[in-house]
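Exercise: predict the structure of this protein bound to iron/sulfur cluster.
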Amino acid sequence: MYNCAKCPGYCCSYDLIPLTKRDVERLAQHFGLGFREARRKFTVERDGEKYAMRRKKDEIFGKVCRFFDTEARRCTVYQARPSTCRTYPGGRCGYYDFLCSERNRQEDPDFIATTWSS
Ligand code: SF4
Ligand code: SF4
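Solution:
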């Protein structure tokens, strides 16, 4: 249905990646930090979310999750990733469908779509 290994990680570039308190606790445990330090290092409070993932610059999408490896294009905290990342995309991945469609159409297996909307 979709193959994240062949994708540049579009979903990790979402503007708002909300975390639960349990997600922050899991990341704190993963890095051997206290809750307050993990919250400060990894999250910001915005758009009504108490814990929104901090982001960093990315050449392809502009900004991505702070835990995304921008060279390898993969998550660096897979075992400790937040619940929203564990359940996404659920069924089919719309971005991946679009990406494959464009790669076929353009006969370019490396084509990267930087924008997409469902
Ligand atoms: S956008 Fe889809 S295919 Fe790409 S990393 Fe996310 S879930 Fe995987
Ligand atoms: S925690 Fe991992 S899977 Fe979730 S948005 Fe960040 S890099 Fe992507």
